Automatic annotation (TrEMBL), chain A:
<feature type="transmembrane region" description="Helical">
    <location>
        <begin position="62"/>
        <end position="85"/>
    </location>
</feature>
<keyword id="KW-1133">Transmembrane helix</keyword>
<feature type="transmembrane region" description="Helical">
    <location>
        <begin position="6"/>
        <end position="21"/>
    </location>
</feature>
<dbReference type="InterPro" id="IPR006153">
    <property type="entry name" value="Cation/H_exchanger_TM"/>
</dbReference>
<keyword id="KW-0812">Transmembrane</keyword>
<feature type="domain" description="Sodium/hydrogen exchanger regulatory region">
    <location>
        <begin position="471"/>
        <end position="580"/>
    </location>
</feature>
<dbReference type="InterPro" id="IPR018422">
    <property type="entry name" value="Cation/H_exchanger_CPA1"/>
</dbReference>
<keyword id="KW-0472">Membrane</keyword>
<feature type="compositionally biased region" description="Polar residues">
    <location>
        <begin position="471"/>
        <end position="480"/>
    </location>
</feature>
From TrEMBL, chain B:
<dbReference type="GO" id="GO:0005737">
    <property type="term" value="C:cytoplasm"/>
</dbReference>
<keyword id="KW-0966">Cell projection</keyword>
<dbReference type="InterPro" id="IPR002048">
    <property type="entry name" value="EF_hand_dom"/>
</dbReference>
<keyword id="KW-0649">Protein kinase inhibitor</keyword>
<dbReference type="GO" id="GO:0005634">
    <property type="term" value="C:nucleus"/>
</dbReference>
<keyword id="KW-0963">Cytoplasm</keyword>
<comment type="similarity">
    <text>Belongs to the calcineurin regulatory subunit family. CHP subfamily.</text>
</comment>
<dbReference type="GO" id="GO:0032587">
    <property type="term" value="C:ruffle membrane"/>
</dbReference>
<keyword id="KW-0106">Calcium</keyword>
């Protein structure tokens, strides 16, 4: 059941209460509040979390469908309703053409968020998802533009005054408003990306920059009478790529969550308000109007889908099947936008406003409840083609190869194809834009990023499996690993000890200094292990979960506190060198108490966040029987492994990101850390290579 | 298989009589390449070859944009690879004529909606074989670790910031992944020699390569860029 159903239900409840006690619905929403405060967060969130690559790959179809679909629906519904209104028997003759057209444009504002949620769950194929997504993104903008045009027309008091010139002007306005908005947004996007380049030392204002510039683009576009929605969307899309590279880890998380929160709040408020107004005296029921509205909405949507897709399929290499088209026509949910637009009509200009509201509400309720609940089963029943997003290095490599191959072939053929365009844009981007807009431009290949990500995941998995199996491990297992793993020499251990002593300084500041010789290691050690296990469990779950269609999946809260393991500057290269070996041998130093204290101190800092999982970890756990007592380890290697693991765990924090093509690696707090991390990753990569080399060399030797 | 031949085609291909055209076209299974596209490609072929009947590797050097492609040499090799040209022998051809050019191009055509299962499967295998040959440079039917490393290095060669070892380790990781997909859990003593074509097919099982590997033949004027 889609979320909107619940929100509306809550609204109705609240409305019923208010109605029961007050006999009038509180006027909480007017034009200003809606257009200035409630709508922008929703639009911003949609634009920001848009998966760019599939969007632009399908942009032709998306534009064709959204723009023409909206227009076709608006005019179709408006004109058919006008025809109905002409029939004397229904008592609607006073609703003239303009009002009908306006109503048509209002009611064709589609809000398929619920559909998107269903699609995501069912992992439908990418093209289908993008069509609906693109539609939801652009539809708002277009409908509002149309709405404003018609309102302007109806404000010319006698509509006989509307000459063809005005109609043409209306069309022109449509284009100017639309395109102007997009350009405006792009400019703002670049400006804000540029500004984030310089905010290293004041990272706390970065979220502010992002939000303010988006909102600024919206407001300034509105003052200039161009489409603020499209401006804001374009701004978010442009900004995102560069801002994400520049901005610090915390800011990134903040931006993400805050954006989602704001948009949820807005949506909820609007739906609640909708529920409230349902129960009230704002209604005028007219059987004919309401039922025909509903009928025409469904019919015209189907007509527009099939007609438009029939045409666009001719130009697509992979046309949409009838099944896909059926699903698209069924996912025409109406939502908050249509309601708000209806609610904000001036009663003076529109004497039948209440009837409009009633009809809108009926359509919304029908689509959200009935269609919303049945679309899930329908998708399953129709067995729509699913997407197959496996994350593997192989796939990434192959895809990359194919991209280059396609571009190369196009070059050879002398064609200008899509891949050429994309390639050229990428080159331009790398050459100029990134240099200007991104702080420290080290272009990261998506293959490398993906590889690192998978490596980390593997490391965690191996650590966990090493840990768990070591509880019942036999000596042979240990010796197996010992055979393959390079044991550190005493000099290395010495240097590591020095490094550690130097680098753990900051950590020690917050906790009383423990000495492994004096402290009873039992409880804290087990607690530390328990904490780590839980960290890894939750991380693993998040990593596992977050990859079918990772749009908008939230990062689990547990990874938050791992950010606070701020590794001091110039940190521990040799420490990290031990990653692999230590993880495999499952060493846990008794210097774990250092780390434990670090953890607890960080958790003290995080008390304000108060996430559920934090509570779990702060409370002392039940004693687990951990038998991972390593026979041969040193204090240094132990703590190094922990620190290191937490450092490496730090990176997956941002895995479930809604990006397709370019999985950019994040997680670098500052330049120094970035260097350290880069060095560290190189080291860990080296270790991995050596290990694998050993493996393969053995294989080759066997030959 | 239905073969559509336009009379236009016979005008274009100089020096061939009709019988030969039929024979060649039969081999090429050109049912989805229209005569317009053939014409277009022919024009391009002439441009590349400098009006000669065959193309050599050097002719590909004239394409400016191709210079920036990291896997340039592999692509050029693919054009001359005898296995792709459906010839029984092995190794690299020295020169290719228009028929061969079309053969290579036919690997990139999009699928038709009216294909049945068997045709689709065959189609898919063809494309995957093309890709496989790009990886397997020594023509032994297996992608070894070294070959894979080579590929990844080339792919990442455009990025000056990356070190060679990252490329190597990525290739290693990919091989391990491939091994786990193809062979499952390996004993510590087992040896994984290389990815054979069957393994390659297995790796691509879930992914729709047919939809991804195509070049859209737009009807545009050939861009005269060969000089």
């Amino acid at each position: 059941m889609p979320e909107s159903c619940l929100q509306i239900a809550v609204g109705v409840l609240v409305g019923a209460i208010i109605f029961g006690t007050d006999h009038k619905s509180p006027p909480v929403m007017n034009t200003n509040i809606y257009f200035l405060y409630l709508l922008p967060p929703i639009v911003l969130k949609e634009g920001y979390f848009m998966p760019t690559r599939p969007f632009f790959e399908n942009i032709g179809s998306i534009l064709w469908w959204s723009v023409l679909g909206a227009l076709l629906n608006a005019f179709g519904i408006g004109l058919s309703l006008y025809a109905i209104c002409q029939i004397e028997a229904f008592g609607l003759t006073d609703v003239d053409l303009l009002q009908n057209l306006l109503f048509g444009s209002m009611i064709s504002a589609v809000d398929p968020v619920a559909a998107l949620a269903v699609f995501e769950e069912a992992s439908v194929n990418e093209q289908l998802y993008m069509m609906i997504f693109g539609e939801s993104l652009l539809n708002d903008g277009i409908t509002v533009v149309l709405y404003n045009i018609f309102i302007a027309f109806s404000q010319m008091h006698r509509y006989e005054e509307i000459e063809p010139v005005d109609v043409l002007a209306g069309f022109a306005r449509f284009f100017v408003v639309g395109l102007g908005g997009v350009l405006f947004g792009i400019v703002f996007g670049f400006v804000s990306a540029f500004m984030t380049r310089f905010t290293q030392n004041i990272s706390s204002i970065e979220p502010l920059l992002v939000f303010m510039f988006s909102y600024l683009s919206y407001l300034s576009a509105e003052t200039l009478y161009i489409s603020g929605i499209l401006a804001m969307t374009a701004c978010a899309v442009t900004m995102k790529k560069y801002v994400e590279e520049n901005v610090s880890q915390n800011s990134y998380t903040t931006i993400k969550y805050f954006m989602k929160m704001l948009s949820s709040v807005s949506e909820t408020l609007i739906f609640v308000f909708m529920g409230v107004s349902t129960v009230g005296k704002n209604h005028e029921w007219n059987w004919a109007f309401v039922s025909f509205t509903l009928l025409f909405c469904l019919v015209w949507r189907a007509i527009s889908v099939f007609a438009l897709f029939y045409i666009s399929n001719k130009f697509r290499t992979y046309p949409f099947t009838v099944k896909d088209q059926l699903i698209i026509s069924y996912s025409g949910f109406r939502g908050a936008s249509s309601f708000s637009l209806a609610f904000l009509l001036h009663a003076s200009l529109f004497p039948r406003k209440k009837m409009f509201i009633t009809a809108t509400l009926v359509v919304i309720y029908f689509t959200v409840f009935i269609q919303g609940i049945t679309i899930g089963p329908l998708v399953k029943y129709l067995d729509v083609k699913k997407t197959n997003k496996k994350e593997s290095i192989n796939e990434e490599v192959h895809m990359r190869l194919m991209d280059h191959l396609k571009v190369g072939t196009e070059d050879i053929c002398g064609h200008w194809g899509h891949y050429q365009l994309r390639d050229k844009f990428k080159k331009f981007d790398n050459k100029y834009l990134k240099k200007i807009l991104i702080r420290k431009n080290e272009p990261k290949s998506s293959i490398v990023s993906l590889y690192k990500k998978l490596e980390i995941r593997q490391a965690i998995e191996m650590a966990e499996s090493g840990m768990i199996s070591s509880a019942g491990s036999t000596a042979s297992f240990q010796s197996n690993r010992n055979r393959r793993v390079h044991r550190p020499s005493p000099e290395e251990v010495e240097s590591m000890r020095d490094m550690l002593a130097h680098n753990l300084y900051q950590v020690r500041q917050r906790a009383p200094s423990y000495n492994r010789y004096t402290l009873a290691t039992e409880t804290s050690e087990k607690q530390a292990k328990e904490i780590l296990i839980r960290h890894q469990n939750s991380l693993q779950q998040s990593l596992r979960k977050g990859h079918s269609l990772p749009w908008g999946r939230p990062v689990p809260a547990s990874t938050k506190h791992l950010h606070y393991f701020s590794l001091p500057h110039g940190s521990s290269h040799p420490v990290r060198r031990k990653t692999r070996s230590d993880i495999f041998t499952g060493d846990y130093g008794s210097d774990s108490d250092h780390v434990v204290s670090a953890m607890f101190s960080s958790q003290r800092r995080l008390r304000s966040l108060e996430s559920k999982q934090q509570h779990k970890e702060i409370i002392p756990m039940a004693q687990l029987n951990r038998r991972a007592e390593p026979s041969d380890f040193t204090a240094q290697t132990g703590s190094s492994s922990k620190l290191d693991r937490s450092a490496t765990i730090r990176r997956p924090a941002l895995m479930p990101k809604p990006q397709f093509g370019t999985a950019v690696m994040r997680g670098y707090e500052s330049d120094e850390e970035e260097k350290a991390a880069a060095a560290a990753s190189r080291q860990s990569v080296k270790r991995a290579t050596e290990k694998r080399d050993v493996h393969f060399h053995k294989a080759q030797r066997r030959k | 298989m239905l073969i559509m031949v336009d009379s236009k085609y016979s005008n274009i291909v100089l020096g061939y009589n009709d019988e030969l055209i039929w024979k060649h076209l039969k081999h090429l299974c050109l049912q989805t390449v229209t005569s317009e596209q053939i014409e277009h490609l022919h024009r391009r072929f002439k441009q590349l070859s400098g009006d000669q009947p065959t193309i050599r590797k050097e002719h590909f050097d004239n394409i400016p944009d191709l210079e920036f492609n990291p896997i340039r040499s592999k692509i050029v090799h693919a054009f001359f690879d005898k296995r792709n040209l459906r010839q029984e022998s092995d190794g690299l051809a020295d020169e290719i004529n228009f028929e061969d050019f079309l053969t290579i191009m036919s690997y990139f055509r999009p699928i038709e909606m009216n294909m049945n299962e068997e045709q689709l499967d065959h189609f898919r295998k063809e494309k995957l074989k093309f890709l496989f040959h790009m990886y397997d440079s020594d023509h032994d039917g297996k992608i070894t670790l070294q070959e894979y490393r080579n590929v990844v290095e080339e792919l990442l060669s455009g990025n000056p910031h990356l070190e060679k070892e990252s490329a190597r380790s990525i290739a290693d990781g990919a091989m391990m992944e491939a091994a786990s997909i193809c062979v499952g859990q390996m004993e510590p003593d087992q040896v994984y020699e290389g990815i054979t074509f069957e393994d390659f097919l297995k790796m691509w099982q879930g992914i729709d390569i047919e939809t991804k590997m195509h070049v859209r033949f737009l009807n545009m004027e050939t861009i005269a860029q060969c000089h």
